[in-house]
Specification:
The chain is built from 19 helices and 17 strands. The chain is α+β, with helices and mostly antiparallel strands.
Length: 576
Amino acid sequence: MERLETKQVNGHTYYYYSRWAKVNGKCRRVWQKYLGKLQDIVQAVEGGGPAPQYAEVFQWGLPQALWNECCAAEVISHVDRECPKRNQGLSTGEYLAIAALNRAICARSKRSLWEWFSQTTLLRHFSQANASRLTSQQFWNHMDRIPESSCGTIWRNMLQGVLERENISLESICYDGTNFYTFIDTFNVRCDMARRGKNKQGRANLRQVSYALFCSEDGQLPLFYDLYQGNRNDAKQFPRMLRAFHAFLKQIAGPGASLPETTLIFDKGNNSKDNFALVDELNLKFVGSVKPDEHKDLAEISNDDPRFVDCGSARLEGTKAFCTTKTVYGQQRTVVVTYNDNLFDAQWRTVQNDLAKAFETLSAIRQRLEDRRSGILHGGQAPTVASIEKQCREALSRQHLKALVPYTVDADEQGLPRLRYELDTAALDRLCNTYLGKNILITNQHAWQQEKIILAYRSQFLIEDVFKEIKDRSIGSWWPMNHWTDSKIRIHGLYCTVAILLRGLALRRVHRARINISMKRFLGELDGIREVINVYPRKRSRRTTRQQTVLTKTNELQDRLLSVLGLNKQDGATLG
């Protein structure tokens, strides 16, 4: 039986909703709920009520999605199995997982890690985390527990589980290398890895760290990586990476098992006779390219040659090609010569820009010589034929310019150099009809159709996109890197690569659900989903405050992402 009861307290009437039942033959109140004063009941019926005291907002969408991937990949258990510690505070695996999640979500320095962490729903999953445990010193105390030899073991065990669980295809694998500049002091002798070299961000004045990566075409997932000295040449590093990756494949396959059928794709910067000899020795299938100047018989074939056939694939619109065989680097290879309209347009504009700059420089050189001859310019060291020829060579150092702009430098009756130059229009026409727009691909996949070879080589853009994302200043995972010893840089490389893996796995699920969005859009949409906790005043006789948890309003795309990733509102532990 249910009743609405009243109680008089200090002249005020309070209402209660109660339930009565027979207990041992007697009617007893077994449950009651306080409803408040009459006006409280009216406000509740009309939809009113006490306003919350305050609200707390936490990152929810992106942390929750990547935490699920972190659990599925068993990041914490793989690290703890390799680097155990006593059961006190956060484990080594938890520290590395937090670092990887931070790099995947919003890269911060270790000094400001707690400031970020405390504003995410990751608080629910790391109950031992607090401000004193997420300091930079505590973090590196635990990262020092991971020796260099364990980094490879942790990554291999983690990736092996991912490959088996997600059924990742290894049919096509891209390889490339990049480098990251650092602000490590020139005279720091504790760091051998960071050295000066040709920096791809144009910061050759700074010491840099090089990073090589093998990436699967299926989901742009990292498969194998390595960090090495910043001044090491790509072609010299390539054989080391080949041997290491070949050994990695054997370990992934297991003892006695055959290697998975893979095709390695790499660019011409890794080419050398010794490198291709190693590829043949390891019996690796590959798709690569060669410089047109090394095969002039193919490069000088007219772009209008009837051997070129238009490619039928929609992904190869504007491309025509023909296939042949040729001995390249000591072996008979399948060679595909391609012509692409978009590539031609880009190279044509490049040649025009280079010509304009060269003519501007040559014109200035010739004008200075004329000014000196006429007496307008005098003093200083007098130019010589040799010095002017050197300046001309520097002005025409860009590709093709020496053939397009012939010049002569001779001395007049006064002994002053005279410069003559012109544009060779016939050479420009030949260039446009042969070299421009053309690529020469080589492979030992002799059974493949030429369109499959072209598409495989073009998949190289996937790993280039990964590098762009790593270096992006808004979503990038590499910077800031405030470390100056080799061991810490290697740990940094490990959790940054784990971050790439977690992102890639989540985006792969989205793409398999036919939601074709970029990584940047994916991260932005999930990051926009926040959890809001409204905290209401504590009522009389209650020990805790009442909380109401809701998500921010989501759009149609965000709803689809939540559905695909299996993210639902969770009744987790209290935050805030």
